[in-house]
Amino acid sequence: MSKPAESAAAPTALVPIPRGPVPHAPESARLREIEIQVDGKAVSVPEGATILDAARKLGIETPTLCFLETLTPVNVCRVCVVELEGARTLVPACSRKVEPGMSVKTDSERVRLSRKLVLEFLASSVDVSTAPAFPEYMERYDAHPERFGKDNATVAQPVKIDNDLYVRDYSKCILCYKCVEACGIDAQNTFAIAVAGRGFTAHIATEFDVPLPDSACVYCGNCIGVCPTGALMFKSEYDMRQAGTWDESRQTRTDTICPYCGVGCDLTIHAQDDKIVRVTSPLDNSVTHGNLCIKGRFGWQFVEVQPAEKK
Questions:
Q1: Which of 155, 177, 200 is at the close of a domain?
Q2: pLDDT per residue as tens digits for the range 209-219
């Protein structure tokens, strides 16, 4: 006859898992708080936080283009620069870590001029007509790119359409590196694309500049999800824009769970006129962090298949 203690610990049909202490994750070490001054206001943030984190904690809106919470900062667009007391040059708020006693100005005349010029240079050299953040930024900093010339054909090139899922229009590319980071170690680890060339010849390319279908691309579409200008775009959206029917004011958004597997990825369904036009994923979801696979991002057509009429 077994001992009562052993019987209590044995799995049963009602208790399939042996009784025991519930495992729990150890508490993370508490980071020390660092106090700095931002626009004359004191703010405390954890060690390792950035100036951008501190500014956001105070509710100070700092423009960003190449920055995304889920990607490693690469400091290339320079539109988030701020004035740091004692520093010779303006510093990028998205990557500069806070240090005790810092005094930062986010809206000084020097900062505003720098941001204005960055926006003007970008908008005078590439097509920013589908960049959602640009209209507000241009108005805020009174940017007038036309003073550098009305023709932004310096990087004009044909749209690359070599698959049925998404298109690449590099005349809209500002070389923010977001797609490269998302395709690399920050998300997909496919490394299908990278920045090729130097200086004026720098551009986003596949390995050896082969066509996308011949590259290592797995068509997850995570590069589309992070692109800030529309240089990478759903084929469905591109076709609707070409036809003049794309209208975000008429679109609805519905949050749901991807039905393809058991991972539980969150989806946001964008629909117009009762038809799905694209699928995204929220950045703050703990499962996906904005990333999806080819099925979750592009495989919605089965929803709209009409059942065969009964005979």
A1: 155
A2: 888 899 999 99
Domain containing 79 — which CATH number? 3.10.20.740
Task: Say yes or no: 162 and 288 in one domain.
Answer: yes
Distance CA 172, CA 125 (A): 9
The tokens describing 43, both together, are: 């703010």
Query: Which residue segment(s) compose the domain that 172 sits in?
Result: 157-302
Same domain, 81 and 142: yes
Does residue 3 lie in a domain region?
Answer: no
Q: Please, is 53 exposed, middle or buried when counting C-beta atoms within 10 Å of its C-beta (0-12, 13-18, 19+)?
A: middle
Shortest CA distance to 44 belongs to which of 24, 63, 27, 58? 58
- Select from 290, 295, 294, 230 the least CA-distant residue to 266: 290
Per the DSSP assignment, residues forming a β-bridge with 301 are: none
Contacts of 17 by beta carbon, 8 Å cutoff, 6+ apart: 11
Domain count, the chain: 2
Find the range with the poorest average confidence among 6-15, 51-60, 68-77, 168-177: 6-15
Q: pLDDT value at position 310? A: 47
* Residue 219 maps to a domain: yes
Among 155, 170, 191, give the residue marking a domain's end: 155
Per residue in 137-162, pLDDT (tens digit) is: 999 999 999 888 776 656 778 899 98
Token look-up 């749209």 returns 159
- Are 175 and 216 found together in one domain? yes
| In-domain check, residue 241 | yes
Which amino acid appears at position 157 of this protein?
Q
Secondary structure element (H or E) that encloses residue 232, with its range: strand 232-234
Backbone angles phi, psi at 295, to 5 degrees: -70, -50
Could you tell me the strand order of the sheet in which 275-280 lies?
A: 252-257, 266-272, 275-280
- Which tokens belong to 181? 């980071």
Closest to 60 (Cα-Cα) out of 140, 158, 164, 156: 140
Q: What is the pTM of this model?
A: 0.83
